[in-house]
Amino acid sequence: KSLRDLPYLNQVINETLRLYTAVPFGLPRLVPPEGAQFNGYHVPRGITVSTQAYSLHRDHAIFPDPDKFNPERWKNPTKEMKEASLPFGGGSRICLGMHLARMELRLATALFFRALPNARPSTKEGMTASEMEIQSFFLMAPQGHRCTIET
């Protein structure tokens, strides 16, 4: 079956990327010598600016109950949701591999759950729920740096 025929899979991936963007913080950029205009504001030269996908993805006005994993919110996404979703960056520095990455995410997720339909996190090897809490430095990762699965 075509992965395009699985809209809920895409909703799950969009929601996962919203909550757990691999690189949640943009690299800092310096405003050029002539300054810049942004949304009617003048940004003086020499100021360091950065886009924070982490903050945008948790904006209560755009994503109600933003810390809740809710794939259904992507069934009919609003224009604001689409504009605020930056898991691969945005503008001229957007990830060139974004479409390949999305295709790989769809394929890997579909194959994983087709092979292991009853998969769930395992505690057999001592993995705890706290190890799965996300740590955010430059990249996001589970605190325990592992995820053990059982069926």
TrEMBL record:
Gene Ontology MF, one: oxidoreductase activity, acting on paired donors, with incorporation or reduction of molecular oxygen
Domain of life assignment: Eukaryota
GO terms for biological process, alphabetical: mycotoxin biosynthetic process
InterPro entries: Cyt_P450 (IPR001128), Cyt_P450_CS (IPR017972), Cyt_P450_E_grp-I (IPR002401), Cyt_P450_sf (IPR036396), Cytochrome_P450_monoxygenase (IPR050121)
Keyword Kinase: no
Binding site for heme: C95
PROSITE patterns attached to this UniProt entry: CYTOCHROME_P450
Required cofactor(s): heme
Keyword terms, alphabetized: Heme, Iron, Metal-binding, Monooxygenase, Oxidoreductase
The family this protein is said to belong to: Belongs to the cytochrome P450 family.
Name by which UniProt lists this protein: Cytochrome P450
